[in-house]
Every structure is written in structure tokens, then in C-alpha cells.
Amino acid sequence: MRILVVDDQELNCTLLKFMLEQESHQVFCVSNGKQAVEQLITIDPDIVLLDVLMPIMDGFEAAPLIKKQVHDVYLPIIFITALDDKASLIRCLEVGGDDFISKPFDKIILSAKIKAHSRTRELSQNSFEQNKLLERYQNEVQREHEIVEHIFNNALVEHLNVPDIIDYHLSPASMFNGDIFLVSPSPIGGLYILLGDFTGHGLAAAIGALPVSKIFYSMAHKGLTVGEIASELNTMLADLLPGHMFCAASILELNKTGRSVSAWLGGLPDGYLLDMQGKVKKSLESQHMALGILETYEFEDTIVHFEVENTDRILVFTDGIIEASDINDNFFGEERVLELMSCPEKSKINDVVNAVKEFSGDIAQQDDLSLALINCKETALPDEEPRSFSQIPMSFTVKLNHKQLKHNDPIVQFVDIICSIEGASEHRSNLFLLLSEAYNNALDHGILKLDSSIKDTEEGFYEYYDNRAQALATLESGELHFEASYLPETQNVIFSIEDSGSGFCTAHNHHADNKGHSYGRGLGLMEEIASSITYNDIGNKINIYYCLNERATA
Predict the structure, then answer these.
(1) How far apart are CA 291 and CA 248, in angstroms?
(2) Which residues carry this modification: 4-aspartylphosphate (predicted)?
(3) Residue range 74-87: average pLDDT?
(4) Closest of 329, 492, 347 to residue 424, by C-alpha
(5) Cα(120)–Cα(188) distance, rounded to whole angstroms?
(6) What whole-number distance in Å separates Cα of residue 14 and Cα of residue 346?
(7) Measured in whole angstroms, how far is the alpha carbon of residue 436 from the centre of its chain?
(8) Is 311 in a helix, a strand, or coil?
(9) What does the pLDDT look like over 131-155, one tens digit per residue?
(10) CA Rg, the chain, in Å?
(11) Chain-centroid distance, C-alpha 263
């Protein structure tokens, strides 16, 4: 240890130096407090033995000046004094002294005190060095985070051109946002919207944002269905993320007229379709597990379709909104969100966000807060450059027997074939909706004889699909004919589906009366999207006309 002895008595200095050097310490001596203060940085002692009474500057004056120069690391000051009154000893401690030893010196006591304060000094030095390393590491991490944040923001914001019909808010709990909000126009004038919530928050949660955005924008540009987008994202995230991480998401497609919506719903809290007064018309309940959990062969890409009015709004949000807590650990909850949305003067996204912050008070934000409100209006997106269409006619016919109907869903294959026509791929989502609705109606009502009216009960959907699975498993007869053709003269795709049963004209006839029910809406969506739809007299065949060059009906 480097020990500085400050004493105006040469005998004391000599004695202390002799005793300390026997303990292998390096000793430096000065004769007054002024010299000690001036030479402190040069000597850089580990311990100071400081006399009280000295000329020029005594120990009481020197102690606080010494402490002031070495505030980062503990430097013990041990007063050496012949004073024995309590007031003087107390003052030694008050001015910055850490201990004292009385004259004449006891070698054993002196050695013990030196060892004790040496340990404390060593701990202080270690702590100081660790703090410097931590501070340097923190600065490096902060700098790296700023760089990554800049890249993230530029990569995501570059594409996030949100139209006026969407109001949204993203508020991260830390520097990086574990929630993601993406919007992209479809090739035929509609809008794709994705709201996602990765496990946790911060950089670890945000790591999937870039690959998700890349795939989303690429597939949206191709006009793929929201189910296909979800499937591709799931495959990528299952490979990319560790086992404990996933991404809950809602992926929506609003058509150009703002009158129909397709949705893949996986893991987020229920979304809501609201009327112009903010009342709930439909709950958008999660239908699937979050992205990144299931293997490709386990993943379900089924989507829901529903009609909307141009005065309707769709509200989606992450769990950070409803799980925001107050000082009593009460959650904000869905009820408060819906109550705000039903108040015309408080139905803006910022009103909800402000209400959440007011509810939480001084409680630190624990999770990312994200929500979006989509007005179901015409998208008013600018038309793209005119596209070229195939000049070669095409047609194909497929006949499926009852065994093939049991074990196959041919819609994706049919859509793939049709989309191979030049100019058709951008219409993939609309073609998929039309074909899947027509095929399922023919199969469910024409061949399986299912009754859609049971969907209107509380458990109706589950009962309906249980009945469907049982009917398919026991199916012993029935055929379905599918025919598609493309006319280059008019850029029309015409396809028909005919079943061997009584058809689904009954559902068609009832469509006008089904606006208040949970069934029969698919035919309305088809009529909204297709150029025209006709049925044969028997009612077991539907003909659908779709113009690839008629963007206004997209």
C-alpha cells in the first residue's frame, strides 16, 4: 500500500515510516496539510495518516480538501493525535476523517487499522473500475441501439404510407418496439393491414420486424390472400425465432370500395367492427395460434370474410392497451376501450391512448401500446400504371368425386392455375374469395345438405363445423364440376361450379333477408366483388364473371 504520513514532528514520521515499511508498505512523508493537499495527486496514496495540529495548515483544514480531490474512490484518512477529548475526536470524523489512532503509536493496533481500511479501499477501487467498465459498455450499447433504431425506423417508415382512412398509434415501452404496424396497397386498389405483437418488448422483441415487413410488402404487392401472407410469415418466424418467442397478429384486407374485409386473426385480443355510433356489430375473435409457433404442416391459413358499410370502423389493438394497470393492479380492460369508442367526442385513437395513460398514472409503461382504427371507406388510392393482359384464351375443367371431396381442398390449386394468366395474379385475393365461397356453398349446401341457420346461435359456428366434419367423414356419394375460362377480348375470367345435389340457390334466395344473421353473408361478398353472378334454373350451378381490367369493382 502507498501510505502518506502528514506530521510536522520528524520523530513521528520516522517512527511511522519504520513501522509501516516493516509491513512492506511504501511510505511518503510531508510536514503539513498544505504540502499534503498539493502533492496528493502526485503521490497517489492508498491511505493518509494525518496529524491534527500542524503549522501552515492543520489536519482539520486539510482533510476536507483531500477528500474533495478523490471523490470517486474511497481514500481513508486516519487522524494521528495526542488529543483525547471527545469534542476533538468527533471533529476529526466530521471534517472527513474515517478513523483515528492515538499517540504514542501501538504497532499492533496501527497494523490492524491499516489492514481494515486497505480492504475497504480495495473494494472501493474494484467498484470504481467496474463502474467505469459498465459506463463504457452502456455508452457502447446506447450507441449501437441508436444505430439499430435508425435502421429499423428508416426500413419500416420508408414503406409506412398510411392513408387518411386509418388512425393509429404505436408507443414502445423501451427504445425498440415489439409491436409492428404495416400498411400496403393491394395491386387492385385495396389495402392490406397488419398489426403484430412479438413476445416481450425491446430489441429482442423487435428483431422480427424487418423480415416480417419485407415478406408482408412483397406478398401484398403480389395481391396474395391474407391467409397466404400469414402462412409465409409463420414459416419464416418459426425458423427465425427461438422457441419461447412468437408474434400474435391480425392481418386484414379491405377492398377498394371499402365494403368487404378478409381477415386472418391469430393471437391478438378481440378486434371489433363498430357502426357509426361506435356500437359493436361484430367481434373479430382470434381464430388461430400466433405466428411462429406451429410448423408449416400444422399451420391453418383459413380466413374470415365479412361485409361492412362505409360508415363502419374496425378497431384492432395489442394486449398492452387492455393490460395497462393502475396503482391497484387493475387492468384498463376492453370495456373501457369500447366505452370510449361509443362516445362520439372520445372515439379517436388519441383519446384511448390518453385515457390509458391517465388510468396508469405514475405507473411506468410495462408493455408496448398499439392500436389502429380503420374507417371502412373507399381507399381512394391512385391507380397504378396500365397493366398488360394475356391475349391467349384458356380454359380447364375439373371433376371431383366424393372420395376426392373428402380429403382435398382444391381452391388454392384452382387459384394458382387462374393466376398463371398474365394480368390475373394481382387479383389473387379476390379470386380466392370468390372461388372459396362458391366451392364451400356447393359442397356444404348442395352435397352435404348443411343448414347455415344454426350459425346464428351462440355456439352455432362450432356446431356447424362439427356437423360439416361428420358429414364429410361419412360422405358416400356426390360430385362437383368446376370449369374456368379466360376471354382475352374482354379480359374476363368466367368460372362455374356445379354440384350433384340440390345446389345452394336456397341460400341465394335468402340472402336479402340475412343482413341481421351470422350466415348467408358470403354471397353478398361475392356479389360485391364479381362483375356478375348467375345461377341455373335448378339452382345447383353458379356462374361467376370477373373482369381483370375492371378496377372499380375490386
Answers:
(1) 6
(2) 51
(3) 84
(4) 492
(5) 74
(6) 84
(7) 31
(8) coil
(9) 999 999 888 888 877 777 676 666 6
(10) 39
(11) 19
Question: What is the rounded distance in angstroms from the CA atom of residue 370 to the CA atom of residue 270?
Answer: 14
Local structure of residue 343 (DSSP, 8 states): S
Half-sphere exposure of 498 (CA within 13 A, CB side): 14
> Is the preceding omega at residue 104 within 30 degrees of 0, hence cis?
yes
Angle value at C-alpha 218, between 215 and 219, nearest 5 degrees: 85
List every span in the chain annotated with CATH 3.40.50.2300: 2-127
The three grid cell numbers given for residue 75, joined into one nine-digit string: 481514500
User: How far is 105 from 252, CA to CA, in rounded Å?
Assistant: 85
CA distance 69 to 88: 24
CA distance 204 to 202: 6
| Residue among 8, 3, 37 at smallest CA distance from 23 | 3
What would the mean pLDDT of 219-236 be, rounded to a whole number?
Answer: 92
For domain 159-375, the CATH architecture is 4-Layer Sandwich (3.60)
The pTM score is 0.67
At residue 406, the 3 state secondary structure works out as helix
For residue 362, the model assigns a pLDDT of 83
CATH for 394-553 is 3.30.565.10
pLDDT beyond 50 at 194: yes
Q: Which fold has domain 2-127?
A: Rossmann fold (3.40.50)
Distance CA 317, CA 243 (A): 24
Handedness of CA 63, 67, 73, 74 (dihedral sign): positive
Say which amino acid occupies 180.
Answer: I
SS3 state at 72: coil
Q: How far, in Å, CA of 316 to CA of 341, rounded?
A: 12
Question: SS3 for 455?
Answer: helix
Which residue carries 360439416 as its cell?
468
Lowest mean pLDDT among 262-271, 343-352, 532-541: 343-352
Residue type at 109?
Answer: I
pLDDT at 262 over 90: yes
- Cell 370510449 maps to which residue? 340
Distance, C-alpha 322 to centroid of its chain: 15
Q: How many CA atoms lie within 13 A of 471 on its CB side?
A: 17
Pairing of strands 313-317, 369-375: antiparallel
Rounded CA separation 366/30 (Å)? 58
